[in-house]
Amino acid sequence: xxRKRERRAGDRTxxxxxxxxxSDRKGNTTTTTTTVLLLFVxxxxxxIVYRILHTPSPAAPDLPYVYRRGLVAEKIDYRQVLHENTIxxxxxxxxxxxxPVFAYITPWNSQGYEMAKKFSNKFTHLSPVWYExxxxxxxxxxxxxxxxxxxxxxxxxxxxxxxxxxxxxxLDLLKKKKQRERAINLIVHLLQSxxxxxxxxxxxxxxxxxxxxLESWSRWAAYGxxxxxxxxxxxxxxxxxxxxxxxxVSLDQHKRQSLQLVYVIGPPRSKELEExxxxxxxxxxxxxxxxxxxxxxxxxxxxxxxxxxxxxxxxHSTLELLLDATSSSGHEKLAxxxxxxxNFYGNDFIVxxxxxGGPIVGREYxxxxxxxxxxxxxxxxxxxxxxxxxxxxxxxxxxxxxxLKSIATxxxxxxxxxxxxxxxxxxxxxxxxxxxL
Length: 437
Ligand SMILES: *[C@@H]1O[C@H](CO)[C@@H](O)[C@H](O)[C@H]1NC(C)=O
Hints:
It contains 14 helices and 15 strands. The chain is α/β, with parallel strands linked by helices and 437 residues long. It has two domains: 6-55; 95-346 and 410-436, Alpha-Beta Barrel (TIM Barrel), CATH 3.20.20. The protein has an eight-stranded parallel β-barrel, surrounded by five helices. The longest helix has 26 residues, at 29-54. The radius of gyration is 26 Å and the shape is globular. The two termini are 19 Å apart. Residues 91, 93-94 line the site of 2-acetamido-2-deoxy-beta-D-glucopyranose. Belongs to the glycosyl hydrolase 18 family.
């Protein structure tokens, strides 16, 4: 963590001492005064002014470093991002956002494990993306050598809920009672004795899971399951049964609470709900048996319609839609269970001369800033930063990638609902993003 704060003060002192040699040759008292002024007073004043501008104000010593530096702003500069993106507060275990912070970690972006360790106190839930439920077995996905960093103990309050994607053919699973029971048993068994499945990973042997994150809705939607009212009810019933089975497991005494089931949901595509949308009714129906909802409020734009990743207004209206239909007391209880999705990746879209482009991660963003030195602009409508560049084939691109400001506004939105956040995923962001969490 190299800090480069002295550099700018140094630049300012260079100029006065350069002009000093000329004045010196003239050798009268006026120049001596000027010399003294230039040699000592100007640099000292510069340093003082610099200090005042850039040092934490004593009134707010507790603010995270990035706030004290004034980096959480609409007006930002590519140089600033390049210089500052790895610098964070000295104390990386202070939490600055009160509500739950849920973090996904993927084996294919192993920097996520390092971030999970370094900023471990900032996350209340960690979800390594590890399992797929096939026909009748639970498969472990590709493992990263960094997985050992998730060893228990570095943050006692943190819950570890691996993600399980239901890959089983939905009709098979949902139509047959035996299959459903088998799937539920597999998951409960995984949670009771994780090492029977991951015994190849010696280092994970002692890790007890605190529950799972289940992803199935998008797959059910893709298979047309949700169009059929009877099947839709069975699908919801499956989630409820799984929740009940998990909650009925008695845990070792060192665990403080029962196993947690978090369910992944997507934002409805429009105000007029379609059969495949997860709506307020569904939320209410699952509310008692599911402990949390990971709401995927991102991927608003695509190569066919280049634009922001997750306009703030859209996040807001999604929450209104999901929560408003419920009674006022139930509304608060359900809002607390929602983890509003925040993307730590961005998109680099082609805007002229064809369509294309797609997601980029932090280091690709940094490399684009280095290459193109673009002007970063704040888009008021979506409350996201973006920049334009032209590649060496003369094709114009637009890049939307999160910034401290865009993340801060989303944290405020979550706080206003009493909701938590879920980050996809912590291996893709810039290190200083974690400072404001
Ligand atoms: C860091 O912050 C935490 C939480 O606020 C506090 O308990 C701890 O004492 C701090 N550590 C240092 C070295 O200041």
